[in-house]
Design brief:
Distance between the termini: 22 Å
Radius of gyration: 27 Å
Number of strands: 0
Number of helices: 13
Largest sheet: none
Length: 338
Amino acid sequence: MDLDVFVTAHRTEWDRLDHLLRRGRRLTGAEADELVVLYQRTATHLSLIRSTTPDPLLTTRLTQLVSRARATVTGTRKASWRDAARFLTTGFPAAVYRSRHWWVPTAVLSTLMAALLGWWIGTHPEVQAAIAAPDDLRAMTRPGGEYETYYSSHPAASFAAQVWTNNAQAAAMCLVLGAFLCIPVVWILFLNMLNLGVGIGLMSSAGRLDVFLGLVLPHGLLELTAVFVAAGTGLRLGWTVIDPGPLSRRTALAQQGRAALGMAIGLALVLFVSGLIEGFVTPSGLPTWARITIGIAAELAFLGYVYILGRRAVRAGDTGDTGDLTAVERSAELPSAA
């Protein structure tokens, strides 16, 4: 395409669109219709220039022109409490539900890994000896030892805040680092499962596995589920780098990245709940069965939230791309493959 000829042929349309945009709300009905037509044509021109003969100055001018026209045509809107309610009742659960093919296998494989590591450590004294000296192991696993006092070592409120911050950071790392071909996510998952496996193995070798599970399950079920969802989303983001589908790799990665940002907000709320349980329920004087019951109830509530509200939202047409831009807000993209 000859860029000079193209500019000469369409400059009048661009100037006319700019003139109409400067007039703002003082447009007649016919002029408003003309503005919409010119906006659509200019957006097409911009796509053609980007895909054939990208010129930085011309691309910048048309991008600004199209952005101004889109804002005029579609109007601007501010976030409201209604948006927050929609996010919590449809957007977030739909996103988690649609990504279940990533995080459910991640949860199953990770749990099996933790169980196998726990069995291996618990049945091999030489592995335990490599972890710590016998006196240190007894200090960790004895009644009133480090595993038990960990959850009551700080005031409940500050401990819950610390736990929430640490878990939110771990989930955010899974979401963000997934873009690096999934490798960091797999490593973060392995470290978490190794830490859990060590606790299972050491406490089972001391004959106190029931105590350990009574301390971990109340908050751990919901906490680990949130981490698995974050890891699954991160793996999905990493796979987009490998296989972006019909869109360009940059476009597909941008869409998945925005969706992951929305997922991070929702998971922060989930981890806040698990942090409250870990700070106030786990170290409480409640019987073990009561604490575990609270943990199971929180987990079932979250799964019901995802599989009932999320599935209903998906069937109603919600794409589950939480945090992404709406179809109106996104720029038009040309497929890079048939």
